[in-house]
């Protein structure tokens, strides 16, 4: 097996585990509410605290990956978020300032998880030829769907048999183990890895958009150049709309099925898997399609075209799903929206890796900060819209934002390389 794909597979695994860590609270949330006597709005604020930490640390995490390399930074991240996942389970009802403690713990967990995708994108920039980056990123983000899809039935089973705290302890232990394997397995550059052959190094170097010497750790561009680039700003704005739509599924879909659509706990757990299965499939299919179209027609079609089509299709599916009377059919249609959204996932990360080069962690950190701010907004705004108007209105807002996010990709030139603007 080529070593670069072994590393991508392990990032896929860590990606899945990270979503187990962050989505488990949406399943355990009703039990946490009952034990701690907190409202829907307060629980939404707990969701938002995670996302605030996650969003604010994206750009610094990307810069750390550019400065110190993805191997060490990702190990640090997995240890950090393992500790704070365990601390979530340590909060008890008798604590003074319980709600504030929950907010701080979840904020800190988000801060630790912020390193994952900027660090992985920095690895992609060094290890993965340009014409394979769609598939590589598609596989990495398929881990999102797998982790989030496995979480509902797994956490429901653990919560029902061992209590909600056990789900956090198990998540923490799995994450720490995955981080240890990563550090043993990974290296920052292909030539540093004892398992890489000369043939694989040659194949990687031929496919990179710049010479390997330009990708050395510690050569990131100044923030002023990154933040003035219109492509970076347009992609970050589009990822805001993407994050808003995606986090409706992560934070509120289980609640929507059980409380609004009337499915029982077991049915809700299984039907709430559908969007995440669709995400895993959409991410992989979108990555393959993006690479093939890029190879045949260029990046404008292969990267931007796939993003425009995927996000626009998501808007249509999400809007239609609100109009379906059957709860089970609505679950399927809305899952189609989640899958369509993830068709575009690899485009975001492939373009930022190509543009950023040695600054890929920093550039993708800025982009992902936009996406997570979208998640922060939806985590708290969704229940407010639902209470003021309806849950249908909440999903229609997400659909409208997807339509805007699709159009933003028309402003992006995927051939731009930031180092040429330095």
Give the gist of this structure.
The chain is an all-alpha fold and 422 residues long. The chain has helices at 3-36, 40-56, 58-68, 70-90, 98-113, 116-127, 133-162, 164-185, 198-207, 223-227, 230-260, 265-271, 274-297, 299-321, 327-342, 345-356, 360-388, 391-408.
- Radius of gyration computed on alpha carbons: 20 Å
Characterize the main sheet.
none
What's the tally of helices? 18
- The helix fraction, in percent, is over 70%
Question: In words, what does this structure look like?
Answer:
This protein has helices at 3-36, 40-56, 58-68, 70-90, 98-113, 116-127, 133-162, 164-185, 198-207, 223-227, 230-260, 265-271, 274-297, 299-321, 327-342, 345-356, 360-388, 391-408. By secondary structure, it is mostly helical. The protein has a single domain (3-200, 223-421), classed as MFS general substrate transporter like domains (Growth Hormone, Chain: A, Up-down Bundle). Helix 13 (274-297) runs parallel beside helix 15 (327-342). The chain is globular, with a radius of gyration of 20 Å. The two termini are 38 Å apart. The mean pLDDT is 87.
Name the features.
mainly alpha, 0% strand, 422 residues, Growth Hormone, Chain: A, 80% helix
Topology:
Blueprint: H1 3-36, H2 40-56, H3 58-68, H4 70-90, H5 98-113, H6 116-127, H7 133-162, H8 164-185, H9 198-207, H10 223-227, H11 230-260, H12 265-271, H13 274-297, H14 299-321, H15 327-342, H16 345-356, H17 360-388, H18 391-408
């Amino acid at each position: 097996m080529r070593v670069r794909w072994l590393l991508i597979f392990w990032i896929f695994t860590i990606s899945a585990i990270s979503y187990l860590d962050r989505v488990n609270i949406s399943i355990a949330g009703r039990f946490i509410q009952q034990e701690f006597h907190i409202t829907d709005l307060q629980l939404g604020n707990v969701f938002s605290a995670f996302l605030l930490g996650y969003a604010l640390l994206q750009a610094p995490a990307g810069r750390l990956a550019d400065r110190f390399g993805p191997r060490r930074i990702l190990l640090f991240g997995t240890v950090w978020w393992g500790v704070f996942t365990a601390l979530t389970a340590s909060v008890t009802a008798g604590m003074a300032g319980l709600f504030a403690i929950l907010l701080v713990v979840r904020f800190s967990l988000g801060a630790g998880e912020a390193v994952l995708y900027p660090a992985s994108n920095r690895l992609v920039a060094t290890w993965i030829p340009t014409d394979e980056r769609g598939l590589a990123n598609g596989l990495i983000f398929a881990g999102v769907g797998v982790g989030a899809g496995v979480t509902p039935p797994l956490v429901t089973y653990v919560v029902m048999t061992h209590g909600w705290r056990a789900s956090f302890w198990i998540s923490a232990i799995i994450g720490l183990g995955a981080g240890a394997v990563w550090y043993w397995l990974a290296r920052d550059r292909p030539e540093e890895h004892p398992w890489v052959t000369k043939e694989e190094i040659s194949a990687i170097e031929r496919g990179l958009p710049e010479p390997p010497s330009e990708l050395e750790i510690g050569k990131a561009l100044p923030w002023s150049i990154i933040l003035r680039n219109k492509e970076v700003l347009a992609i970050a704005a589009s990822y805001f709309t993407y994050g808003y739509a995606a986090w409706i599924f992560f934070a509120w879909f289980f609640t929507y099925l059980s409380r609004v659509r009337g499915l029982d706990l077991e049915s809700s757990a299984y039907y709430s898997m559908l969007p995440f299965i669709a995400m895993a499939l959409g991410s992989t299919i979108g990555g393959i399609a993006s690479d093939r179209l890029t190879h045949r027609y260029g990046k404008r079609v292969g990267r931007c075209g796939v993003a425009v089509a995927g996000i626009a299709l998501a808007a249509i599916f999400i809007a239609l799903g609100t109009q379906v009377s059957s709860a089970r059919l609505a679950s399927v249609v809305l899952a189609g929206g989640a899958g369509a959204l993830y068709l575009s996932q690899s485009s975001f990360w492939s373009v930022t890796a190509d543009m950023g080069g040695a600054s890929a962690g920093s550039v993708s950190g800025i982009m992902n900060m936009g996406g997570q701010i979208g998640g922060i907004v939806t985590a708290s705004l969704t229940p407010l819209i639902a209470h003021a108007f309806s849950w249908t209105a909440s999903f229609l807002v997400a659909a409208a934002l997807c339509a805007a996010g699709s159009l933003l990709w028309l402003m992006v030139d995927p051939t731009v390389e930031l180092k040429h603007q330095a």
